[in-house]
Amino acid sequence: MSSLDRVGKSLTEIEEKDWIVLHALERLIFSYEVIPPARIIRVSGLDRAEVEFRLNRLNGMKLIVGKGKGYSLVSAGLDAIALNAFVKRNLASALGKAIGMGKESDVIEVINDLGEEYAIKFYRIGRISFRAVRRKRGYTSTLAGHRWLITNMKAAKKEYDALRRLHPIGISVPEAIARERHAVLMRKVEAPMLSDIEVLDSPKEVLYDILDNIKRAYMVEGIVNSDLSEYNVLYDGERVWIIDWPQYVEKDHPNVSVLLDRDIFNILKFFKKKFKVDCKLESASFYVRGWSEKLEIF
Ligand SMILES: Nc1ncnc2c1ncn2[C@@H]1O[C@H](COP(=O)(O)OP(=O)(O)OP(=O)(O)O)[C@@H](O)[C@H]1O
Ligand SMILES: [Mg+2]
Questions:
Q1: Residue 127 burial (C-beta neighbours within 10 Å; 0-12, 13-18, 19+)
Q2: Less crowded by CB within 10 Å, the N or C end of the chain?
């Protein structure tokens, strides 16, 4: 059972007072890496015995870690809070299958009461370095915990903001419906990653479609993805979908020009190598910036 499945299951077991204590921990992550029980008692408004009982339960469900002197919220605890919030907003009622379990995120299918399918992206930035640090140094104190949860909440917020700006102006990105904590709920796209596609009927058109989306994101909204590659473009046989925007930069960013060219370069390199489609960086770069109307693809 994946960690998200476990969290989904624990939603049915978490009682009202467990939630009160879990939410108290959540409020305190901005001030502590390890939260003293006295603070949890204060913020929750419950008495000591009750809080201790609840902390034990939450510990057993692996939503928090700690003992006696201090407790910390862990990723699964934040997952539970986010999922529960989506459920309360009637945006999700059951977890579906995992779509993408990657380095920096877990993407999972969810179904709402109407049987409609969506995707939720849970941010996991720090997961790898956290493990690496533990392996290398045998301790986790400095990199562990709340700082990463906060980083992940910021990343989700940033991606959500980008999708909410780009979708209404017709850029081909998944429509974001809601954000809770470190999780973004969006429309599910049925399409493989470009990197997994072996044959394209008209690769030139697909390349044009990608460059045209990059251009409009840049010219109309002033946004550059800055992590673009064949791994962040999906293609459903009719149109492309550009995903994964938490690291986007705005037009006034000091490195915007370099990042825009790097995005374009990555895509051109992929099309040249895999589909033998040639387009000069200068031509694509001028086109994306609106300096030239013409895009020469061979
Ligand atoms: N809206 C969506 N609908 C369907 N699948 C999606 C959606 N968003 C993301 N995915 C799938 O999840 C995968 C990971 O998403 P994304 O690229 O946004 O995250 P990531 O942070 O790059 O994760 P990773 O570390 O695995 O690369 C994508 O390759 C895609 O297969
Ligand atoms: Mg990605």
A1: middle
A2: N
Residue in 160, 233, 243 to alter for ligand 1 test, most ligand atoms within 8 A of Cβ: 243
227 a catalytic residue: yes
What structural domains and CATH numbers belong to the chain? Answer: 3-186 (3.30.200.20), 194-288 (1.10.510.10)
Select which of 227, 244, 261, 263 is catalytic: 227
Instruction: Evaluate: CB of 244 within 6 angstroms of ligand 1.
Output: yes
The alpha carbon of 194 and the centre of ligand 1 are apart by a number of angstroms equal to: 12
Among 257, 77, 255, residue whose Cα is nearest residue 183: 77
Q: Are the C-beta atoms of 33 and 72 separated by less than 8 Å?
A: yes
Ligand 1 within 6 A of CB of 295: no
**Residue of 84, 74, 77, 102 lying closest to 185 (CA atoms):** 84
Closest-CA residue, ligand 1 atom 12, reads 100
Counting ligand 1 atoms within 8 A of each CB, the residue from 97, 104, 105 with the most, and so the one to mutate, is 105
Alpha-carbon distance 280 to 259, whole Å? 17
CA angle in degrees (0–180, nearest 5) for 181-183-185 = 125
CA distances from 24 to 36, 79, 96, 186, 239 (A): 12, 15, 29, 28, 45
Using a 6 Å cutoff on CB, does residue 103 contact ligand 1?
Answer: yes
